[in-house]
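Study this one:
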Amino acid sequence: MLAKGFEVILAARSLDKGKQAAQRLPTADASVRVLELDVTDDESINRAAEQLSQEIDYLDVLVNNAGIYPDQEINILNISRELLDLTMNTNAFGPLEVIQAFLPLLMQAPAARVINVSSGYG
């Protein structure tokens, strides 16, 4: 369950899929807003940050949770450059770009936090 009084901003590559995910969250007294954001697309990241900066004054917590792992019989010895590029853009460069884009909102918060979620594969 989401904490009482919190507003959660759920970012997703697809606005429709983000809305579907938001409907499955146990919100109680919290509210959930959906924001379209693709961590592999600088334009999408900047557009999302600009949109949000027009809607809120500050951001308390930024959670980077996007990630992919190409595990269909692929390993470091046979991964293609294209798939390696996509993986690095999603798992490493994307979160850094998101932090950079949302930093002005984070700096307005009294005690902002950035949480980067990863897996053992990350």
